[in-house]
Amino acid sequence: MNFFSDNTAGASAPVMAALAAANDGTATAYGTDAWTGRVERLFAEIFEHEVAAFLVASGTAANSLALASITRPWGAVLTHEESHVADDECGAPEFFSDGAKLVGLPGAGNKISPGPVTQALARMREGALHQVQPQAISITQATECGQIYTPAEVRALKDAGAPRGLTMHMDGARFANALVALGCSPAAITWQAGVDVLTFGGTKNGAWAAEAVIFFQPEAAAEMKWRRKRSGHTLSKGRLIGAQFEGLLGGGHWLELARHANAMAKRLADALIALNIPLAWPCQVNQVFPILSAELQTKLKAAGVGYLPWSQTALPKDIPFAEGETIGRFVMAFSTSEADVERLINVFAAAKG
Amino acid sequence: MNFFSDNTAGASAPVMAALAAANDGTATAYGTDAWTGRVERLFAEIFEHEVAAFLVASGTAANSLALASITRPWGAVLTHEESHVADDECGAPEFFSDGAKLVGLPGAGNKISPGPVTQALARMREGALHQVQPQAISITQATECGQIYTPAEVRALKDAGAPRGLTMHMDGARFANALVALGCSPAAITWQAGVDVLTFGGTKNGAWAAEAVIFFQPEAAAEMKWRRKRSGHTLSKGRLIGAQFEGLLGGGHWLELARHANAMAKRLADALIALNIPLAWPCQVNQVFPILSAELQTKLKAAGVGYLPWSQTALPKDIPFAEGETIGRFVMAFSTSEADVERLINVFAAAKG
Amino acid sequence: MNFFSDNTAGASAPVMAALAAANDGTATAYGTDAWTGRVERLFAEIFEHEVAAFLVASGTAANSLALASITRPWGAVLTHEESHVADDECGAPEFFSDGAKLVGLPGAGNKISPGPVTQALARMREGALHQVQPQAISITQATECGQIYTPAEVRALKDAGAPRGLTMHMDGARFANALVALGCSPAAITWQAGVDVLTFGGTKNGAWAAEAVIFFQPEAAAEMKWRRKRSGHTLSKGRLIGAQFEGLLGGGHWLELARHANAMAKRLADALIALNIPLAWPCQVNQVFPILSAELQTKLKAAGVGYLPWSQTALPKDIPFAEGETIGRFVMAFSTSEADVERLINVFAAAKG
Amino acid sequence: MNFFSDNTAGASAPVMAALAAANDGTATAYGTDAWTGRVERLFAEIFEHEVAAFLVASGTAANSLALASITRPWGAVLTHEESHVADDECGAPEFFSDGAKLVGLPGAGNKISPGPVTQALARMREGALHQVQPQAISITQATECGQIYTPAEVRALKDAGAPRGLTMHMDGARFANALVALGCSPAAITWQAGVDVLTFGGTKNGAWAAEAVIFFQPEAAAEMKWRRKRSGHTLSKGRLIGAQFEGLLGGGHWLELARHANAMAKRLADALIALNIPLAWPCQVNQVFPILSAELQTKLKAAGVGYLPWSQTALPKDIPFAEGETIGRFVMAFSTSEADVERLINVFAAAKG
């Protein structure tokens, strides 16, 4: 019972099939192949907008390349204090950007809001040579606590950054999960809401290793080909990523996988609530964050249930927390079966019974 | 007829099969999976030596991580002036090493030799604060001109660098091809000859995207886990690379693929010599470098033959070169069939006929 | 009436005299001159400890070189969220360290304490590849709010960092002011209390541009000569800095200057308190931070008094703050005369009268 | 008898006087002082062109900031293989530019010429992702071998770089010496000949530590204030540099000092030629490079004459070189007296006699 993350699964069957199908014959290298070309066009269709798309094999690379593209070394990126880019990439954004600064903002459920953005900007004097200059906002969709930003919330953040001309990046490692939860169009939650650069995650969605950096102003991507190459992220056999994305995006497969994972999470969340096990944050996508008593933790461990303990920093203020309690993160992947969830629910039920 | 590179093929059937077999079930992430663990042990067996092995998806990353691990930002790496790391990675080694310097040395066939190493060292005053400090030698095995270093030649370079304590890196993007051509053991051409860090190439050999940085003094790799993560090269679904390597290394498949590619090259080279088409450098591995007259170039183009024009910098001094001539690089992949080569030979024969 | 900073003055007369005296004849370059050599030995005497001292012309350089020397690019420095290194150097520490992270901690008067250090360390998992690794603590002595750390407080911070082996850096831009206020020996507040690397500030103390990075474990400074050169901070005519320091340090001149500046600040602080103008933080060194009503601000401006508005982030929680109030920073330099202070006090008195 | 370099002297009397005069009263910090402002305008007058001028204390910083401003991290700077920026700054340009590449070109007397520029450009494919992109040319005026570029030669280099849009940087550590030797206007040898950015050297000319980065298109300097601050080169007491430059530039003092140093060199060169001691390169500025026999070397050493052995890389091809010979570099500073030169000539004469 492995609920550690949605990166513990392999690839979905259609992704594997697409990869196998792509294995014949020769193709030009370094992302000039036909698969990659088709995927780049697919993204334009999906987002109903001209895009420049750059495929890479890791989310760390995608996020870091994106941030490096929209900051200068003396620039600052406003982001949640526990966002993945700030706290979980071992300083990769700093490496790729030659030393730009990530400024951490507070916010329940790892969501940032206009107030802290405005306050942070007030503390960074415009044009002053003593301080790094704010240049971008980075938000995670859905957040590390499984919370989603609505288009209006994204727009409000963009507006809060507008007086200083901040560019907006969205880390969409779980973009598909957020999108199907929102029920809006890909365009509505990205460029129409003010997003300039998107990390489009395929890996957690059902691919092996497939992420895309998508620029909605293609001219802003002029330097990306050198940045990607120079950081070792231009794979020579580019169709490896192109084919995965074709398998994933074709026929709405990616949305279907995300809907399934979200549904599995909903099922667990409903069961936990029925069992009077409180959730740290409401279940909005494919992650569930129950607050686990010491006793529950022991019983889950005994039953061989794998999950991660989670940070309490972004808890809403009104959540009571008792001695020995912890937050557990349970993540549903595209491959999590109903039987897997039922088994887990049964463990919880037995533990509470 | 695509002879541009050995990265235009996909993956060999056993590699694809290993990947498909690895797709079931869940695995722990970020390189802690069973496949990766087994591969790390396999490398120790192959090299008959304790190793620290780090799997990544691109050769640029592998080389750059290796060089960054053995230099300081004010350090210098002595390498051929047209080696891949110096001339074909868009400055990736400089990026990963935070600005270390690659010092280019001359040498026929892109091979460097002790003389130029010693001369370069003489020009870099030891301990002087005005100059970068020599810290490593990097050689390509086989070189970008398809030439191989013997164990004795590697040792001689190591000895030339010894007075300044230089570490030795071998870029083995085509390590398998060189190894089967040499007919020695993997140990003999690496740590026994003085190599400290090896980039072990799987991609050109028959994988999709699988390279390993192999340290023969494992303790020298203490910082690699952070370097790799920070540069975005720690894939979350690590078995993607682990499984490829298992498919490639199992049962000597990698050596078989290399032998095939080398044999295809030998066949072409022999035919060219029989046709009185001179080779810029002798065919030692899976690449053939005929000197093409203007007329031959036209005819090859008309026949739809794909190859790369190649640099003349590393030509031996006694090669005569006529107006309009160019060097063509023809690379045989694991997947190049005898029929492919025959077709190419026929084009040459017809052109010369 | 310029009380903006202690960097608005020139150099003290003995410093100018020492510089003039050093102008004759030739000297070897790049810090190998006799003046620099003597100063390095002087530091060993002052600190009663073997040291490696590196003279530079700016505090930004001294702090950044110090921090770069004790962190890796994936390392983190724990420091106050509004410390000079974190908030006032335009990201210089990130530049010099190739992207290390400064982790900001809260604390009244810009002082950090063991509690927040321990909490921050708890959030950074040891050896985890996903997070930067804590490697150093940096404190400012005296802080940007004019507060001093006692030897016991420094030791407590060092102890808090000890479980993770943190190195301790002290930014002593106003070290002399803090030292004379503490009344202890230079040794007691540095290496005896756990400081590993000190930025010894001469510029604000009475020099033109003279700072020293002092390592109390000289072997830890092995790479500094390259770091300093590579960042352009090895002046060719090194005696420019050496002579300033000789003028400053000779005969206890530096302590005398600091005592004077502190005394001028004490005089102002006492007068403000007598006038019922509250101070944000107690006056401990050469800075005074009155809380200024809107009316006072207007009157100071009208009288041509120069001061900086100061951040309220590090205010103690129990300081009441009314609409329109601000904190003003008034800094006394070595050159601030009693008459200057009297004039300022008169402005305050008239404004309150 | 110290002829090691023109950085072994202190400052000229007018420079010291200007510094002493600047020591009274307070001034605003970080380069906003009146002295710096006046110097910036002085440069505009001297060059008869609008400029953006940035004062710093070291030539390494000035050159590196200049190059970082005109390259991207994946860019290349074409320069002589033994130019100061390539070979004598410990990789500082690489550090400041976040890893850009310096491509070394050959050339007698350390001068580069259009041919090698064109050849280097031909080897760097435009827009190709595999190679760093050429973005600038950097020349030293006068070169490290004391040779000067005429305006026509500078223009020819600019023209050679024009097809790739290369920006031109001139390292003018000895700009004054070159200028008075050329006898042209400062404008003629800089922006009128195609120079975009100039390192204007004051230190070797007679200051303590005063260099300026001068942009002839001021808008190209938009980011310099952050680059300079971030690298620790924005001195708080900025008038330290401003005053030096005022002392140096006022009343043509800088030209007078350069003329004197050049004349001293000419005197030595003429004497050496009369003594049949050959010069490696003709004496054009304030440096003399005799080829010294083993015997001469011994006698100079015995007489206590200080000079540097110099590289033979940039020797013209037709210079014969005997066993044991070396090139000696003798540099005349502003402060070198006629008596100093006479003494040196006497040593040579006695040695040859």
From TrEMBL, chains A, B, C, D:
Molecular function per GO: L-allo-threonine aldolase activity
Enzyme class: lyase
Every Aromatic amino acid beta-eliminating lyase/threonine aldolase domain range: 3-292
Cofactor field: pyridoxal 5'-phosphate
Transferase among keywords: no
InterPro entries referenced in this protein's UniProt entry, alphabetically: ArAA_b-elim_lyase/Thr_aldolase, Low_specificity_L-TA_bact, PyrdxlP-dep_Trfase, PyrdxlP-dep_Trfase_major, PyrdxlP-dep_Trfase_small
Catalytic reaction(s) noted: L-allo-threonine = acetaldehyde + glycine; L-threonine = acetaldehyde + glycine
Pfam family, any one: Beta_elim_lyase
EC number: 4.1.2.48
Keywords: Lyase, Pyridoxal phosphate
GO process annotations (BP): L-threonine catabolic process
Keyword Lyase attached: yes
Gene3D superfamilies found in the cross-reference section: Aspartate Aminotransferase, domain 1, Type I PLP-dependent aspartate aminotransferase-like (Major domain)
Role description: Catalyzes the cleavage of L-allo-threonine and L-threonine to glycine and acetaldehyde.
Family: Belongs to the threonine aldolase family.
Subunit architecture: Homotetramer.
Protein's name in the database: L-threonine aldolase
